[in-house]
C-alpha cells in the first residue's frame, strides 16, 4: 500500500490508482460490529420463524427486520415463503376488518412490510392499502398520524396538506411522548 493504514478507507483517494479506497465498507457497513450484529439478528429471526406460521401476528414486523438485517435474495424459497405469509396475513386481516377492525398503526405496518419486500401495497389482490390508510388517517386520532405518514411516504403517497403542521405540533409538544401517550398537545 502507498499510504499509512490510518488513511485507508477514509473516503479520500490518496493513491494514484485509488487502491486505498477499494473494498472499503461504506455507510452503515463502516460501523464497527455491524456485520456481526446483522449475522446475530438474522440467526435470531430465522430461529423465531416457522414454515407454517411465519412469525405469527408479528410477521409484518419480522419481514421489516429481516430486510433490514439481510441482503435481498429473490431466488431463496424460504424468503419467498416469508413474503407470501405476509401477504396472506395482510389479506386475512383485511377480510376480518368487519369483525376486528384494523387500526391505522396495523395497516401502516402492513404497508411498510409490503413496501420493504418489494410488493405493491396499492394492489394486494385488489386491495389498495394506501388508499384505505389515507382515508382512515383522516378519521384517526392525531397520536396515530406519524406512523401513518411514514407508511404513506414509504409507499410514495403524498401527505395531507396539514401533515407538516400536525407533525410540528407533536415534535414541539412539551410532553415527552405525545404520540405514544395521547397527551394533549401544547
From TrEMBL:
One of its GO terms (biological process) is cobalamin transport. It comes from the Eukaryota. The keyword Disulfide bond applies. GO terms for cellular component: extracellular space. Keywords: Disulfide bond. GO terms for molecular function: cobalamin binding. PANTHER family: TRANSCOBALAMIN II, TRANSCOBALAMIN-1/GASTRIC INTRINSIC FACTOR. This is Uncharacterized protein. It comes from Caerostris darwini. The lineage of its organism: Eukaryota, Metazoa, Ecdysozoa, Arthropoda, Chelicerata.
Amino acid at each position: 500500500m502507498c499510504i499509512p493504514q490510518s488513511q485507508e478507507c477514509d473516503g479520500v483517494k490518496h493513491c494514484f490508482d485509488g487502491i486505498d479506497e477499494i473494498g472499503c465498507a461504506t455507510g452503515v457497513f463502516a460501523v464497527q460490529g455491524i456485520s456481526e450484529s446483522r449475522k446475530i439478528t438474522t440467526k435470531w429471526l430465522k430461529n423465531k420463524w416457522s414454515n407454517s406460521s411465519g412469525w405469527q401476528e408479528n410477521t409484518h414486523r419480522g419481514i421489516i427486520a429481516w430486510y433490514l438485517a439481510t441482503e435481498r435474495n429473490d431466488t431463496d424459497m424460504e424468503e419467498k415463503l416469508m413474503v407470501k405469509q405476509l401477504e396472506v396475513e395482510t389479506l386475512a386481516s383485511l377480510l376480518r376488518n368487519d369483525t376486528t377492525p384494523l387500526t391505522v398503526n396495523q395497516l401502516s405496518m402492513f404497508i411498510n412490510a409490503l413496501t420493504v419486500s418489494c410488493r405493491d401495497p396499492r394492489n394486494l389482490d385488489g386491495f389498495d392499502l394506501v388508499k384505505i390508510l389515507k382515508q382512515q388517517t383522516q378519521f384517526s386520532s392525531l397520536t396515530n398520524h406519524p406512523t401513518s405518514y411514514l407508511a404513506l411516504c414509504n409507499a410514495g403517497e403524498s401527505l395531507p396538506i396539514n401533515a407538516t403542521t400536525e407533525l410540528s405540533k407533536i415534535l414541539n409538544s412539551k410532553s415527552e411522548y405525545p404520540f405514544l401517550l395521547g397527551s394533549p398537545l401544547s
